[in-house]
Amino acid sequence: MEKLEKRKKQAEQGAGFFGKKLLALSSLFFLQGPMGFAGLGLGMLGLGAAVLLLAVSGWFITAAGVAALSLATLHSFNYLQPAALIRLLAISRTLALYGERIVSHDGILSLLQRLRLWLFDGLSSMNRFRMAGFGSGELMQRMLADMDRLDQWPLRGLAPWAWATGLSALVSALLFWLQPDLAVIFLLFIIAVWGLLPCFILLPVLRCTRSHTRMEGKRRQFLLETLAGLITLRTTGAFRARGKALEAMDSEILGNQWRIQVFGLVAQLFILLSLSAVLWMVVFHGGRAVEAGQFSGAVLVGIACVILGLTEVFLPLSATFQSLGFTLEARDRITDSVAGAREIKGGVRSLPQNLSFCLENVSARQKNAATGPQGVSLTLHRGDSLWIEGPSGCGKSTLAAVMAGWLSPEAGEVRVNGVALIDVEEGCLRRHVGLLDQDVHLFPMMLGENLRLASPLAGDDLLMDLLDEVALGDWARELPEGLNTPIGDYGTGVSGGQARRLALARLLLMETPVLILDEPFEGLDADTADALLTMLRRRQKDGILIVISHQHLKGSFTHYLRLSPA
């Protein structure tokens, strides 16, 4: 329970940052907490030590060479302190950069945790009908690849600019203290990198990354559809055309990757040429200062080494533009994925006590479906039961989705306790209307954990009583670890009938007044199905029971509805 409460707080914290129209890029940094700032500080220290190490080494070698020109200066030259400083800087660089990797990745993992909790919190408020606008491949792209790109932004996009800015300020101050003209030369380079580089590189890279990301999702969805219909495509001779279309998508993706790399190389070339120009100008103007006696030649070599050392600081900036492009596109796509979830979280949070369930001239169709239920009207009250039957393809599951609020009707209205479903807050709706879908979902957890998804505080005795009611009690007691037995990925450790009854037990644990069951007896023998139906009637005697089944059901129902294909 402590873990559950901790995760809930983390999800709420993420929602506080992300509960806007768009994710703020700054929130991707602040959600790392203190580790984000510690990573920036250690990175700055490591890069600063690396640049200073090169500068001190250049100064030391030059000063030692100059001192060796005469015996007097050679004997008076103190090489112990510079040598100790060089060793200190080398050790500091190694420790700081290593510490930055550890601290930054700890912060990134914390960010990734909050991002995933926020995303799954939004998606869990939706369902397969509300998410029908996204193909499985497209949704997978958004949940995996786009999420990974979001958590890379603080390290690959933000940190290089922060480090470059901080070290540039320190170098500018140092040059201004030595020779103001040198500081002006360096500031011209900074203006070029900060101003010209984004102007010429950013927009083209953003276009390429946008095209690349969208094509990746489209290709993934296209590939999954092709594999799913592979036999049909081969028998109809359409596989070759699909293959050519896939090759065209691959070519476009590779083309975008090539263009992104070219822009990155152009940015690197610009940075290197600019640093080279700065180096020559600093050496030229610094040479005059050496001739004027303002500082020694060894100091000038140290300054030149500082400029050379900044290559390690500025070159990573060339990759930040593509990181920004991928992050912006991933942000927009993920925000769009959970936009529907945010829209449905408002509404009525408490329903009237008079239990009723009403459909008024309801018509609906699933996405891309040719037909669906048309003009369905009925009214149910406390204690009523409804049996819906009809041939395959007539829209029974579609009607169930509409009644549960999983799918919006094309016409008409569904009301629970006199309130339209569209006006009911999602959590409130789930507490009042429960649906057992044909596609049951069991998670790779223990048996008891799967059941407690409906009620985290449920005890073992209550769970065993529920399993007894769905004719799984004896089976559960014979398991090696009882309720603590893992059921495998996607419920592979149980049969289809057992999985359906486990999902039914989980739904019954929620104790919803309105219970909608879509083919609950599929794969069960007649005696087990009759026993389950008797149990359901008993449990819902003070509620509303709706059973959708093409099988013949024993006993009487207060209402009966038969759907036709038309």
Automatic annotation (TrEMBL):
Keywords: ATP-binding, Membrane, Nucleotide-binding, Transmembrane, Transmembrane helix. The keyword ATP-binding applies. One of its GO terms (cellular component) is plasma membrane. InterPro entries: AAA+_ATPase, ABC1_TM_dom, ABC1_TM_sf, ABC_CydC/D, ABC_transporter-like_ATP-bd, ABC_transporter-like_CS, P-loop_NTPase, Type_1_exporter. It is a multi-pass membrane protein. It is found in: Cell membrane. Residues 357-566 form the ABC transporter domain. One of its GO terms (molecular function) is ATP hydrolysis activity. PROSITE patterns: ABC_TM1F (PS50929), ABC_TRANSPORTER_1 (PS00211), ABC_TRANSPORTER_2 (PS50893). The keyword Cell division does not apply. Residues 37-324 form the ABC transmembrane type-1 domain. GO terms for biological process: cell redox homeostasis; glutathione transmembrane transport. The chain crosses the membrane at residues 21-43, 49-72, 158-178, 184-206, 260-283, 295-317. Its main location: membrane. It comes from the Bacteria. This is Thiol reductant ABC exporter subunit CydC.
